[in-house]
Design a protein that fits this description.
Length: 145
């Protein structure tokens, strides 16, 4: 997979050669191995179809966004509107660290009591904190049952 990522430009030759300890001779032999080249092309096609290739390349470009936004924010010649928008976007980027809660860190519990002769539905929206042993919102519900 690393060779496919190298062929896509996600990894550098220096990184691949260092990781696998390829000297110049071994590197040249790899390039001449038709079966390996075919397997790399097959892996590249799989990565394109799954979206992994585009996602990784987009992440590389996105990593430069804070620098660009910071330049706009600090540019006294930029319009105030652009400076404010860059500050807002930087806030969003800064909030996407490990402490941020994403949609994947949330789930919803819906209890439909209509089968018991009632039209009552209870819904609980729960955020998951990976450091908690149990979601705090569910503790009173669990204790009541």
């Amino acid at each position: 997979m690393d060779m496919a990522r190298f062929a896509e430009g996600v990894l550098t030759e220096k990184w691949v050669r260092r990781k696998y300890r390829f000297d110049a001779e071994a590197w040249e032999k790899l390039g001449g191995d038709d079966q390996l080249v075919e397997e790399i092309e097959t892996e590249k096609l799989k990565r394109i179809r799954s979206g992994d290739s585009a996602r990784e390349r987009a992440q590389i470009h996105f990593a430069a966004a804070p620098n660009v936004l910071g330049d706009i924010l600090n540019d006294q010649q930029a319009s105030p509107r652009h400076r404010i928008e860059s500050a807002k976007e930087l806030r969003v980027v800064a909030a996407n660290g490990p402490e941020a809660t994403s949609a994947a860190d949330r789930f919803q519990i819906t209890i439909n009591l209509s089968a018991a002769g009632s039209d009552h539905v209870e819904t609980y929206d729960v955020a998951i904190n990976p450091h908690d042993t149990a979601p705090q919102e569910l503790l009173p519900i669990t204790a009541a049952n």
